[in-house]
Amino acid sequence: MFKNVSALNKRMSLAAWKFLSQKVIPEKEKGQTLSEYAVIIGVIVGVVVVAVVVTFRGQIVAAFQASTSALSSAR
Q1: pTM of the entire predicted model
Q2: Domains of the chain: which residue ranges?
Q3: Closest Cα to residue 10, out of 61, 57, 47?
């Protein structure tokens, strides 16, 4: 599953998971609101999306180029 993910992306994912697990299951903290969890999850999703786009940039560009050339030749 993680064949194409660089070491930096793995470290970012592990750091995000550690941060999330500490915040989602607090031991002595009370009063956490749903909006705070939403912000944390939103930041993590943003980091994951950027990491995926950076990692698979070549494949994404190739897919768009292939579809563009297929549409151009269909005329």
Answers
A1: 0.47
A2: 7-23+33-73
A3: 47
